[in-house]
Write a structure and sequence with these properties.
Shape of chain A: globular
CATH topology of chain A: Rossmann fold
Oligomer: heterodimer
Structural class of chain A: alpha/beta
Radius of gyration of chain B: 17 Å
Distance between the termini of chain B: 31 Å
Number of strands of chain A: 7
Distance between the termini of chain A: 44 Å
CATH architecture of chain B: 3-Layer(aba) Sandwich
CATH superfamily of chain B: NAD(P)-binding Rossmann-like Domain
């Protein structure tokens, strides 16, 4: 099993890579952070004795992605699995952020994901099943003031994953949309979750469990995976309550949280 | 002023800082390691206020990640070559953390295991030539909590069912095994390793962990002793002319430790750690 993972040097991408390595899959890792990428590649080879390749790539740069695929073609690598993990967010209101930073959210979370997915689908191993995950977010279930661009970019991935799943239904490919709530990836996130108080704690899901279950689900079939019972409940609320009301409620809560967080 | 150098990790707060201050006052040359440059600076100032004559240097390194450990080991090596005849008198592996959630280091290693144990293993391994030259001591910051647990050999990073306290306890048991393994291997070359149980100490170890650990720590912390009290045990070990005989010390007295601390387990852990760090047994000593 050859697996491509984007955003593999940090957070969920790294834990996904660990989970895949544990299952004995061979990995092709990309990330923007070169030192981190080398560290995880070597770490996984030592821990699990798998074959891993790593190439630094800025997915928002078309030329960089072309170079990545040229490298893949040169070694004639074919893939069975693609985990689209790379994504970013910058906290704060739309007007408080720099113009290009806002645009970058969309160009990485959406445009870059399409670029990679298209390229890898053309390089899938023939006559074998293919599996792919799009890491969306619980935020994709609601319009989210103060995280407006991020939530909308994740909604794009969510809808796209469901639609692509139908397109590939008869081509032996599974497409899973993963919509996690908060996950503790580093110390700043720990602080952010603490700032959210009760809601932060109940929407937080253990990352290692998410990684394991995501891969299990993807191997079983297409669909959506929302980790955590409380998060599933919230996503149902998001569907039955009018979207304007949801937006107002979310605004009220995030405004409060972000003020508290900024004080930390 | 003696010409003995002591390296202390996690020396910007809590037990590490008080130990650094105590040893600096007693005339040891102290090299402290901390994660943030700002806090290193503050710690150095704190020590120099108490002991203006002291010879204190601080190095910045994020010991979670192996490349940082390797870098700081080289820096220490250079300082020792320049100032202390390449001799290291004591290495105090004190840096430690508590985490509520499963998180990983850059190398894909669970963070409590990475910092509390593996960083200490790698740093000690890289400084072995200096320790042998100085007939040095290695002191681990241990914990009473290493008792009543085994090493989970089949899933040492606890990826399957992560429990923060299990991971903490296991990392401290691994620290004991490191000391045991070092004694088995290098006692003949003059190195001796110890584990100090500092007791329950008022430090900020649990404050940044978030989640359950933060809540538990909130209730336990007020019953703790001051870090200056537990620093005494470290000071006592460094002050002895000849190596003390025990392995596990609490309040300057040798204490009983877990039955899991066996040569066999230590061998197994050393083998695994060499694999995780990409190092080889005895490669440093052969040089």
């Amino acid at each position: 099993m050859n697996v491509m993972i984007t955003g593999a040097a940090g957070g969920l991408g790294r834990v996904m890579a660990i989970e895949c390595a544990k299952r004995g899959y061979n990995l092709f890792l990309t990330d923007r952070n070169k030192a981190g990428l080398e560290a995880i590649k070597i770490g996984l080879e030592r821990q699990y004795g798998i074959i891993a390749a790593a190439k630094k790539c800025d997915l928002t740069d078309c030329g960089d992605v072309d170079a990545l695929f040229r490298e893949i073609d040169r070694h004639n690598i074919r893939f069975d699995m693609l985990l689209n993990v790379a994504g970013i967010d910058f906290e704060g209101g739309f007007q408080d952020r720099e113009r290009e930073k806002v645009v970058k959210i969309v160009s990485l979370n959406d445009a870059a994901t399409l670029r990679i997915t298209h390229g890898v689908l053309q390089r899938r191993r023939e006559k074998k099943p293919f599996y792919t995950v799009f890491v969306s977010s619980l935020a994709s279930m609601f319009p989210m003031p103060l995280k407006a661009t991020y939530a909308a970019s994740k909604r794009f991935l969510y809808d796209f994953a469901l639609a692509l799943g139908q397109e590939l239904k008869h081509e032996n490919a599974n497409v899973l949309a993963l919509c996690p709530g908060g996950m503790v990836t580093n110390e700043e996130v720990t602080a952010a979750i603490e700032a959210q108080g009760f809601f932060g704690r109940v929407t937080t899901v253990p990352m290692e469990k998410v990684a394991r279950k995501t891969i299990d689900r993807m191997l079983r079939g297409s669909g959506t995976y929302i980790p955590g019972g409380f998060n599933r409940f919230l996503s149902v609320l998001g569907r039955i309550i009018p979207r304007r009301t949801v937006a107002a409620a979310v605004y009220w809560r995030w405004n409060h949280t972000q003020k508290k967080w900024m004080q930390l | 002023m003696s010409d003995k150098t002591v390296v202390i990790t996690g020396a910007t707060s809590g037990i590490g800082l008080e130990t650094a201050a105590l040893l600096a006052k007693e005339g040891f040359r102290v090299i402290g390691i901390g994660r943030s440059g700002e806090r290193c600076h503050a710690a150095r100032k704190y020590i120099l206020e108490a002991a203006p004559e002291a010879d204190v240097a601080y190095l910045t390194a994020d010991l979670y990640h192996q490349r940082e450990v390797l870098r700081v080991a080289l820096e220490i090596h250079d300082i020792l070559a320049e100032k202390g005849n390449g001799e290291l008198f004591a290495l105090i592996n004190n840096a430690g953390c508590a985490q509520s959630y499963y998180t990983t280091s850059e190398d894909g290693i669970e963070r409590q295991f990475a910092l509390n144990y593996l960083a200490a293993f790698l740093l000690t391994h890289k400084l072995l030539p200096d320790l042998i030259k100085g007939r040095g001591r290695v002191i681990m910051t241990g914990s009473e909590s290493h008792k009543g647990i085994r090493v989970h050999w089949d899933d040492i990073m606890l990826t399957h069912r992560y429990h923060p306290l299990t991971a903490y306890k296991q990392s401290k048991l691994c620290g004991m095994l490191l000391a045991k393994g070092l004694n088995d291997r290098y006692a003949g070359m003059g190195i001796r390793a110890f584990v100090v149980d500092p007791g329950l100490v008022k430090t900020d170890i649990g404050d940044k962990a978030g989640g359950i650990v933060k809540i538990v720590w909130h209730f336990r912390k007020p019953f703790g002793i001051s870090p200056a009290v537990s620093a005494q045990t470290y000071g006592w070990i460094c002050r002895q002319e000849t190596h003390p005989a025990g392995l596990y010390y609490c309040k300057c007295q040798p204490c009983k430790y877990s039955r899991e601390v066996t040569g066999q387990n230590a061998d197994r852990l050393f083998q695994l750690s060499h694999c995780l760090c990409g190092t080889e047994q005895n490669s440093e000593v052969a040089q």
